[in-house]
């Protein structure tokens, strides 16, 4: 079985969020199930720098962006193809926007070009390459199934929704430049509320649709979660599967994590406090035995950060401390920085993202707070489980699927792994934080939560088997 995975980012070459972790880790896990995965990525400067590949295909003019070519390389020992299109991807800034954080105005053309290149490969147009399945991740790759559909290509396609809120919606004026036939401009094609919908097009055209957790697959059937696409999801419900994300133990494992001053296992978790002391120093927190809560997140409304900002003073009054790493909405950034100034030694905030620091936070903090209003899967709670950093989560999406609430029955049965709360409000979150503080004060119960979380298996094995079965089913059909 040969699969072409198409995405806008993949760890360790380029990462802005959990999408990169999934795209980077899944190929190795699939290999154990007889699936060989080749990943197609845009040729951002960081990707080109890490790729000393040879050219295998070229275009004089790819979708109006001038000369482009495909380079072969590797990513963590797995096959990689890079779309080297300098006019699209060699820019100062991030994958999706400039140095000020504003989206590139031609993102529609940049990622249509990525999808067009993927379709060219998928239909057998690149000498020496053939695949059984094309797997597109999120809106940036979503036109690939549409291009293949209108080319009548026999290759099977899978469209994975990592977050349905990000859809790639653009004006109708771009349609004529996409290189699609006229009949693609229809409600059954790429047209979406009078414009072009990249994700909508992929969901319409793909042979199978996956989301990144079973609960999220059900949630997006409802208007409050489906973001306008709930009707299409319902129409294609028989083709939708929820497969929870996994984590890569080669990257996220406290036993061998170079970012931790003190490495540990389930049996040696008593070594963990040394990391807590390092975390206190890193964030300027007063040393102490009380709980440290962490947040590693985009600072946005979706993530419930506005509600958490309202609870910071109460958290400090409870005896808790907060160490935050994240960036996002400027007003929320300012709210947390102001809270840190208001509570020196009790609240520490780092604006931005730092991969090694995120590992120290998981390995040193006592609990991670994830009050998301919706969360397709979430990875930080899975990292928390692996590192004995107890998760305090809203009961939604993948958070509901992966964290077992510490209710009386679960505590008695010694199966609880964290704390869930219903409804993202100040009252609900405060109650959850109070529960966490009470459990932390009962150290035997807290250690049980840590041990149960660390015993849970959220590596990619089970999920990779589900993807492999999905691919095989499509090919067999």
UniProtKB/TrEMBL annotation:
GO molecular function terms noted in the UniProt entry: alpha-1,4-glucan glucosyltransferase (ADP-glucose donor) activity; alpha-1,4-glucan glucosyltransferase (UDP-glucose donor) activity
Keyword Transit peptide carried by entry: no
Family matches, as InterPro entries: Glyco_trans_1, GS/SS, Starch_synth_cat_dom
Family annotation (Pfam families): Glyco_transf_5, Glycos_transf_1
All residue ranges annotated as the Glycosyl transferase family domain in the record: 280-435
Enzyme Commission code: 2.4.1.21
Residues binding ADP-alpha-D-glucose: 15
Residue ranges of domain Starch synthase catalytic in the record: 2-234
Pathway: Glycan biosynthesis; glycogen biosynthesis
Reaction equation(s) it catalyzes: [(1->4)-alpha-D-glucosyl](n) + ADP-alpha-D-glucose = [(1->4)-alpha-D-glucosyl](n+1) + ADP + H(+)
Keywords noted in UniProt: Glycogen biosynthesis, Glycosyltransferase, Transferase
Origin superkingdom: Bacteria
Class in the EC hierarchy, top level: transferase
SUPFAM superfamilies registered for this protein in UniProt: UDP-Glycosyltransferase/glycogen phosphorylase
GO BP of this protein: glycogen biosynthetic process
A cellular component annotation (GO) from this entry: cytosol
PANTHER family tied to this protein: ALPHA AMYLASE DOMAIN-CONTAINING PROTEIN (PTHR45825:SF11), GRANULE-BOUND STARCH SYNTHASE 1, CHLOROPLASTIC/AMYLOPLASTIC (PTHR45825)
Entry similarity comment: Belongs to the glycosyltransferase 1 family. Bacterial/plant glycogen synthase subfamily.
Function of the protein: Synthesizes alpha-1,4-glucan chains using ADP-glucose.
Cross-referenced HAMAP family: Glycogen_synth
Name of the protein in question: Glycogen synthase
Lineage, broadest ranks: Bacteria, Pseudomonadati, Pseudomonadota, Alphaproteobacteria, Sphingomonadales
């Amino acid at each position: 079985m040969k699969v072409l995975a198409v995405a806008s980012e993949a760890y360790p070459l380029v990462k802005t969020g959990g999408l990169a972790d999934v795209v980077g880790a899944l190929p190795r896990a699939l290999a154990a199930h007889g699936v060989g995965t080749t990943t197609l990525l845009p040729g951002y400067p960081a990707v080109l720098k890490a790729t000393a590949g040879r050219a295998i295909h070229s275009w004089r003019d790819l979708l109006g962006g001038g000369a482009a070519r495909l380079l072969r390389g590797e990513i963590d020992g797995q096959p990689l193809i890079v779309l080297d299109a300098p006019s699209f991807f060699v820019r100062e800034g991030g994958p999706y926007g400039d140095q000020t954080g504003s989206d590139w105005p031609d993102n529609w053309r940049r990622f249509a070009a990525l999808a067009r290149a993927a379709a060219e490969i998928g239909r057998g147009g690149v000498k020496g390459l053939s695949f059984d399945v094309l797997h597109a991740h999120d809106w940036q790759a979503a036109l690939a199934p549409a291009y293949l559909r209108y080319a009548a290509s026999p290759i099977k396609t899978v469209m994975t929704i990592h977050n349905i809120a990000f859809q790639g919606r653009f004006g109708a004026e771009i349609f004529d430049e996409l290189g699609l036939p006229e009949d693609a401009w229809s409600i059954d094609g790429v047209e979406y509320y009078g414009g072009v919908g990249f994700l909508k097009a992929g969901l319409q055209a793909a042979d199978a649709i996956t989301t990144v957790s079973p609960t999220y697959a059900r949630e997006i059937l409802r208007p409050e979660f489906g973001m306008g696409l709930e009707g299409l999801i319902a129409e294609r419900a028989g083709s939708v599967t929820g497969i929870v994300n996994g984590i890569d133990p080669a990257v996220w494992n406290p036993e061998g994590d170079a970012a931790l001053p003190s490495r540990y296992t389930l049996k040696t978790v008593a070594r963990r406090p040394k990391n807590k002391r390092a975390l206190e120093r890193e964030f300027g927190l007063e040393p102490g035995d009380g709980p440290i809560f962490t947040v590693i997140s985009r600072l946005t409304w979706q993530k419930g950060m506005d509600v958490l900002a309202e609870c910071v003073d109460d958290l400090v009054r409870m005896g808790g401390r907060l160490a935050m790493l994240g960036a996002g909405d400027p007003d929320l950034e300012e709210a947390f920085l102001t809270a840190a100034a208001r509570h020196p030694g009790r609240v520490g905030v780092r604006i931005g993202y730092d991969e090694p620091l995120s590992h120290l936070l998981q390995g040193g903090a006592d609990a991670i707070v994830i009050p998301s209003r919706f969360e397709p899967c979430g990875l930080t709670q899975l990292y928390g489980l692996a590192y004995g950093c107890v998760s305090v989560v809203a009961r939604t999406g993948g958070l509901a699927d992966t964290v077992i609430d510490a209710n009386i029955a679960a505590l008695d049965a010694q199966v609880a792994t964290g704390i869930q709360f219903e409804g993202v409000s100040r009252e609900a979150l405060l109650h959850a934080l109070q529960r966490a503080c009470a459990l932390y004060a009962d150290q035997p119960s807290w250690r049980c939560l840590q041990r149960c979380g660390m015993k849970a298996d959220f590596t990619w094995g089970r999920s990779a088997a589900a993807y492999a079965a999905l691919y095989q089913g499509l090919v067999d059909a």
